[in-house]
């Protein structure tokens, strides 16, 4: 008998320009009995302060995340240790304010505060056993869908992989398009393309179903609207949410599998790594690769080559990139069907990477 996924989603969503101001009210019940609130915030907001919110220095803790690189499992372990060292009781809530990196960091911290051991032990599917700390996600950059997804993507010494679990899902999100106003266009494009590619990979995948398709189609059209017609932060915020929902009930595809190899090898952020790869996937997504190239042109974005001296690919690094790609079994199955291993052998993956040099 077919076993269908049991779709878990964020139960509470606040959406609207200025809705960030409702964070305080959301925290009131959690602060009862002096509950500690841990804020995990993108380092951008250190020098560009957020609109007022009621930080309580005697109980709350704040960690600014260095998002010049993607989050490491070690970063998660050290925040968890620092919280445990500074506070005897478990926090009442974790609040994440930032892009995908910050939201994933916060999701992983909430899991690791109640589950023994190191973050790298939970990279994989459904390895988390204990209910995590309540968490609130507030995106300041849109596209990854991390605000709704059931994964917290991390880089460990061995691999780039998510903590895929229903326990990684936020309990509450606040979607305030005003928080996106400071994002530079290039960054908005890279992260926005993550959403575009989520939608394309869902729509072209073998796991597609009517449920996931409805989310993906609307997410795709909102991305097309922003990057081919009129750029709009509220549209992108909704697109990110819908694109994320879409892949929760289907999967990503080849672009994501290869892009994980690139991010692992060269520490290139996910959105940019996706763009580098997608540009060469005309054999798999012909119509959408053409449309993507039009969006590049319209937004005056040039994709970097992975060339020396900045990027050095050795044979052993190339093999490792292929290994990382092949860990993405579900996305590759979604993209190519059950015979994906025959259709995408190691040699073919290497050839694709070598085209990007
Ligand atoms: P990011 O969070 O890495 O941030 C990129 C840059 O944007 C940083 O320099 C940050 O300081 C800046 N920034 C963020 N908000 C800003 C604002 N309001 N104004 C100005 N600058 C701002 O970028 P991202 O693309 O959102 O996230 C990428 C990460 O998300 C990767 O680690 C990737 O693996 C992960 N990801 C997770 C999922 C998921 O479902 N969990 C899905 C896709 C990607
Ligand atoms: Zn993605």
End-to-end C-alpha gap: 46 Å
Overall structural class, as computed from helix and strand content, comes to alpha/beta
Give the integer mean of the pLDDT values. 95
Number of strands: 9
By DSSP (H or I, 4+ residues per run), the number of helices equals: 14
- Based on CA atoms alone, the radius of gyration comes out at 20 Å
The biggest beta sheet is recorded as: 6 strands, parallel
**What are the secondary-structure elements, in order, as H or E?**
EHEHEHEHEEEEEHHHHHHHHHH
Instruction: List ligands, each type once.
Output: nicotinamide-adenine-dinucleotide, zinc ion
Please list the strands of the largest sheet in the order they lie side by side: 1-9-6-4-2-3
Tertiary shape: globular
| Helix content class | 40-55%
Unreliable segments of 5+ consecutive residues: none
Query: How much of the sequence is in beta strands?
Result: 5-15%
């Amino acid at each position: 008998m077919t076993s269908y996924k049991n779709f878990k989603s964020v139960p509470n969503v606040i959406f609207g320009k200025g809705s960030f101001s409702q964070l305080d009210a959301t925290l009131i019940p959690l602060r009862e009995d002096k509950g500690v609130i841990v804020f995990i915030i993108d380092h951008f907001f250190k020098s560009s302060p957020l609109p007022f919110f009621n930080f309580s220095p005697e109980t709350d803790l704040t960690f600014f995340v260095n998002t010049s690189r993607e989050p490491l499992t070690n970063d998660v372990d050290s925040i968890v240790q620092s919280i445990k060292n500074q506070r005897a009781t478990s926090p009442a809530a974790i609040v994440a304010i930032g892009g995908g990196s910050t939201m994933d960091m916060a999701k992983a911290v909430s899991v690791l505060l109640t589950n023994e051991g190191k973050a790298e032990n939970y990279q994989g599917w459904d390895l988390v056993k204990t209910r995590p700390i309540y968490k609130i996600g507030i995106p300041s950059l849109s596209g990854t869908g991390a605000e709704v997804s059931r994964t917290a993507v991390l880089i460990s010494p061995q691999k780039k992989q998510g903590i895929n679990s229903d326990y990684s899902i936020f309990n509450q999100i606040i979607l305030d398009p005003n928080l996106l106003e400071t994002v530079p266009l290039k960054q908005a494009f890279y992260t926005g393309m993550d959403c575009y590619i989520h939608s394309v990979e869902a729509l072209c995948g073998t796991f597609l179903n009517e449920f996931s398709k409805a989310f993906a189609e609307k997410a795709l059209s909102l991305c097309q609207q922003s990057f081919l017609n009129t750029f709009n932060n509220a549209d992108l915020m909704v697109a990110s949410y819908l694109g994320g929902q879409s892949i929760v009930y289907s999967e990503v595809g080849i672009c994501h599998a290869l892009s994980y190899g690139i991010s692992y090898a060269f520490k290139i952020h996910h959105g940019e790594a996706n763009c580098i790869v997608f540009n060469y996937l005309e054999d798999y997504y012909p119509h959408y690769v053409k449309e993507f190239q039009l969006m590049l042109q319209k937004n005056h974005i040039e994709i970097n080559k992975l060339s020396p001296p900045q990027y050095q690919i050795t044979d052993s690094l190339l093999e490792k990139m292929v290994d990382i790609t092949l860990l993405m079994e579900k996305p590759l199955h979604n993209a190519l069907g059950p015979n994906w291993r025959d259709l995408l052998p190691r040699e073919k993956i290497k050839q694709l990477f070598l085209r990007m040099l």
